[in-house]
Write a structure and sequence with these properties.
This protein is α+β, with helices and mostly antiparallel strands. The chain folds into 2 domains: 2-211, q2cbj1_9rhob like domain (Jelly Rolls, Sandwich); 260-287. It is 27% helix and 16% strand. It has helices at residues 2-15, 26-42, 68-72, 75-85, 213-216, 219-222, 227-232, 270-287, and strands at residues 17-20, 55-58, 92-102, 128-134, 146-147, 175-179, 184-185, 195-204. The strands form 2 sheets. The chain has a 6-stranded antiparallel β-sheet with strand order 1-6-4-8-3-2, covered by helices on one side. A two-stranded antiparallel ribbon has the order 5-7. Helix 1 (2-15) packs across helix 4 (75-85). The model has no long low-confidence stretch (mean pLDDT 96).
């Protein structure tokens, strides 16, 4: 798997996106589609020029279909994401898991970079990685995702001609992976049937996520997740001490009983832990 991750990571670095083919059994993905069918039908169309009024979107997918966890926790995808984001964070976090249905007659979406939802410096830090999992085949005609190659290298480029966009073909079981710094947008659907997909997005663990995971998956829900999935949706501290509950890891909320009184416990990086310990030793030496 490491060779595949090397290849896909190289493509991400060069072009800002890649298609990882045949990562999952298409039957599993189509099963997710069937589980979500009733919610797609019942969900109203979006409102606003950005989301598109011929498009439907809904989140909370880890509680909507049992196999969505297989998408979110795919080991090859997580390895790729870690390689991209780990230089700027202690741990990654789930940014969102959202289902999207682009209906016939939908217009192309405004080209944008998802990293722009955060107001930090651009051009040196990668804030997130997106993964589109097609529930139906993605092609140009039905609204497949448009991407502008190389735009992750220049955050000052606001728009480019449509002719320079690529629409990678992808099928159920494939994953279209692209950086948050890559200019992209949903396509227009000129066919007679909707295009469905799931976007799973991962961000730096110290950012406020697009979808507030700890509200979407409160302790009563998250305690049934694996420890790894619970940590990814926010039940873990980001060192140093960020995102704690009473000075402890928020995973304590997943226990059957949470004590009323808790000691605050350091959650520091090794370098910070050593600096703090050295300072304490110096103080004790002065006192001696």
């Amino acid at each position: 798997m490491s060779t595949l991750v090397d290849c896909y990571s190289a493509a991400l670095a060069s072009y800002g996106f890649c298609v990882a083919e045949k990562l999952l059994d298409p039957g599993l993905v189509l099963g997710i589609d069937r589980e979500l069918d009733a919610r797609f039908s019942a969900t109203p169309a979006c409102e606003g020029a950005f989301y598109g009024e011929r498009t439907k979107r809904f989140g909370s997918l880890l509680t909507r279909a049992k196999d969505v966890e297989r998408l979110v926790m795919h080991p090859l995808i997580l390895d790729m994401v870690e390689r991209v984001l780990s230089p700027w964070c202690d741990r990654i976090a789930l940014n969102l898991a959202q289902a999207i249905e682009i209906h016939p007659g939908a217009l192309p979406q405004l080209p944008h970079r998802d990293q722009d939802m955060w107001q930090g410096p651009k051009g040196t830090i990668e804030y997130l990685v997106n993964v589109m999992w097609p529930l139906t085949p993605f092609v140009k005609e039905n609204g497949g995702t448009r991407l502008w190659p190389g735009t992750h290298l220049d955050p000052d480029v606001k728009s480019l001609p449509e002719a320079e966009a690529l629409v990678p073909r992808a099928s159920p079981g494939d994953a279209l992976v692209f950086l948050g710094s890559t200019l992209h947008g949903g396509g227009g659907n000129v066919t007679s049937v909707p295009r469905r997909g799931i976007v799973v997005s991962y961000c730096l663990g110290w950012l406020k996520p697009f979808e507030l995971q700890w509200l979407v998956y409160p302790p009563a829900v998250a305690r049934h997740f694996s420890p790894e999935l619970a940590a990814l949706v926010g039940y873990a501290q980001h060192r140093p001490n960020l995102g704690n509950v009473e000075g402890q890891c928020p995973s304590i909320l997943l226990k059957d009983r949470v004590p009323d009184f808790l000691p605050a416990i350091d959650a520091l990086r090794p370098d910070q832990k050593e600096v703090a310990a050295m300072f304490v030793r110096s103080q004790l030496g002065e006192m001696g």
